[in-house]
Design goal:
Layout lengths: L2 H9 L8 E8 L3 E8 L4 E2 L6 E2 L2 E14 L2 E13 L9 E3 L14 H14 L1 H10 L6 H13 L9 E10 L3 E8 L4 E6 L4 H10 L5 E4 L3 H10 L4 E4 L1 H16 L3 H13 L17 H25 L4 H8 L3 H10 L18 H9 L5 H10 L6 H13 L21 H9 L7 H13 L1 H17 L7 H8 L5 H9 L1 H9 L5 H15 L7 H11 L1
Parallel strand pairs: 2-6, 8-11, 11-12
Antiparallel strand pairs: 1-2, 3-4, 5-6, 6-7, 8-9, 9-10
Helix pairs in contact: 2-3, 2-4, 2-22, 3-4, 4-22, 5-6, 7-15, 7-17, 8-16, 9-10, 13-14, 16-17, 17-18
Length: 544
């Protein structure tokens, strides 16, 4: 034998399954055949459990095993048949069982089957088959899927679920749905249900009585299932779905004012806003980034002024830094400089610099087409691309006076009349975060439609409460909203008032379930049409 074979033969007892004795090693370039025999001299009858050492006959049993150094391993087990020594036993002979190695009639060892089963659960059938071939343990994709299904049919032990999220996932969007159950304390899927029926959810909850808190959306089928299966559990309505329902309600109200919205939009297009509410030209930053930068600089300036006052009163820099939450070195630098840094980087040179005079002249002549300006610059020797000239044109439009012929958004794009959904976003948004045309549109619409203004005000109060940015009580907010055109929405909320109140006091939501649904979609789409419920459930629970 070669040195490699001798090394293998010496170390095989620790590599092969327990209970087998190595008798011979038959190496080949792609396959390693190991002849083994059971160690025990006797075996128990599977019918009467009587031990027998009387060998009736022998036969060879072939078992695939885990690979060794990139080569397939085949165990040739010289198994035995024994005579049953119990006179009353119906069996005359029986084959010995390899309980610690492989089940009866199996063609692979248990440890190889476990590896291949996990391969099928993780990557699926065809992909798993290709990967298994590269790992020297070849198996067909169909076999991997069968092994994965069998693994999913056996329930895995898990700790009791106390906080549960219930949500739906789509087999086919708009046609067929299932139900996903997520343990919110561990952020893992505990089970999948093949349908979206109250009876299925109720049966699962009855089988898992440890559930005490259930987060759900506002679907009535889930509420019915919870009442049937866990009537004592605390239901928590998802706040995101409540906000979405509120937006839909405001949208339904705003649709009754479409005529006024279209007319005001035409007026904004014809006469763009050029002054602020006080009559002076607006000087607010054009973009949201600039507004945040300005607000941050103002906050740092206020900190510097407070630090200077405390320092003049005799406080130490360390004490001031602790009080204001600043670093000592930063505070010392600010006090020495007398101002806070703006962090504005100096403007670097641009390849447009030699052509700026031409661009400014053509812009003043009325040519605002970036593509045409770029073509003219190319004729003059400009080596850049169209995007560079387009960016310059965008900055030029932003810098244009607000009394220009066409209103523009905060991003410098032409303002367009808002759609129905965008009207709702403009009405519910903070006016400080809107561009001048959007702000003027929302203000004018609310001014001309008093009923809509009262409804939007009530909706904003409810929105702030659902976002936990208000100290008002739910009863007061709902009472105010009930006097507006949101009365129907409030009536629906009152039907589920217990879950809504729990949503304002408890931290649980269905957001983790939404993330798990994305994982379910990914797993379902990687199975190339083989996503039956048993297989999908097995793979999802394995991924959890």
């Amino acid at each position: 034998m070669s040195s490699k074979v001798w090394f293998l033969f010496e170390h095989l007892p620790s590599l092969i399954p327990a209970g087998l004795l190595v008798q011979q090693v038959l190496p080949s370039p792609d396959l390693l055949t190991i002849v083994v025999a059971p160690r025990e001299p006797c075996a128990a009858c599977p019918s009467c459990a009587t031990l027998s050492s009387h060998v009736h006959s022998r036969y060879d049993r072939l078992l695939q095993d885990v690979p060794w150094q990139g080569r397939q391993v085949l165990l040739r087990v010289r198994a035995r048949r024994f005579r049953c020594l119990a006179p009353a036993c119906p069996r005359l002979t029986f084959a010995e069982r390899l309980a610690d190695t492989a089940p009866a009639a199996a063609r692979r060892t248990e440890r190889l089957a476990d590896l291949q089963r996990h391969l099928g659960l993780v990557v699926g059938g065809e992909v798993g088959a290709r990967l298994a071939a590269r790992l020297a343990m070849p198996v067909s994709g169909d076999t991997l899927l069968r092994m994965a299904r069998r693994a999913g049919a056996t329930p895995q032990p898990r700790p009791p679920v106390r906080v549960l999220a219930v949500d739906e996932w789509a087999w086919r969007r708009g046609h067929r749905y299932g139900t996903v159950l997520v343990d919110l304390e561990r952020n893992s899927v505990v089970d999948l249900l093949p349908d979206r029926q109250a009876e299925s959810l109720a049966a699962w909850l009855k089988a898992n009585p440890s559930v005490a808190v259930i987060a759900r959306d506002r679907a009535g089928v889930f509420a019915d299932g919870i009442r049937q299966g866990a009537p004592n559990a605390t239901e928590v309505a998802d706040r995101w779905h409540l906000l979405r329902n509120l937006g839909d309600a405001v949208h339904a109200v705003a649709q009754h004012h479409n005529a006024a919205a279209r007319r005001i939009a035409k007026e904004i297009m014809a006469h763009p806003p050029c002054v602020g509410t006080s009559g002076e030209a607006t000087t607010e930053p054009a973009t949201a980034v600039q507004r945040r930068s300005t607000a941050s600089h103002a906050h740092r300036q206020a900190q510097l002024e407070e630090a200077a006052r405390l320092h003049a009163a005799g406080a130490s820099i360390s004490a001031i830094a602790r009080q204001l939450g600043l670093d000592r070195k930063t505070l010392r630098h600010w006090l020495q400089a007398g101002t806070v840094p703006t962090w504005h980087k100096p403007r670097r040179g641009s390849m447009l610099d030699p052509y700026r005079d031409h661009l400014e002249r053509r812009w003043s002549e009325g040519c605002h087409n970036a593509a045409r300006l770029w073509q003219e610059l190319v004729a003059l020797g400009f080596p850049g691309r169209t995007a560079i000239v387009g960016a310059w044109a965008t900055e030029r439009r932003r810098a244009a006076p607000t009394g220009s012929s066409m209103p523009v958004t905060a991003e410098g794009k032409p303002w367009r009349p808002p759609s129905g959904r965008r009207v709702v976003r403009l009405l519910m948004a903070d006016a400080r975060n809107l561009s001048p045309p959007d702000r003027a549109f929302a203000a004018q619409l609310l001014k001309e439609e008093p009923g809509l203004e009262i409804t939007v005000a009530a909706a904003k109060r409810l929105q702030a409460l659902l976002r936990r940015r208000s100290e008002e009580t739910l009863a007061d907010v709902l009472a105010a909203a009930e006097q507006t055109q949101l009365a129907g929405f409030v009536a629906e909320m009152r039907k589920d008032i217990g879950a809504v109140e729990a949503a304002l006091t408890l931290p649980w939501t269905t957001s983790p379930a939404e993330g798990q649904i994305n994982r379910i979609k990914m797993i379902k789409r990687t199975m190339y049409g083989r996503a039956g419920f048993e297989l999908l459930r097995a793979r999802v629970l394995h991924a959890a």
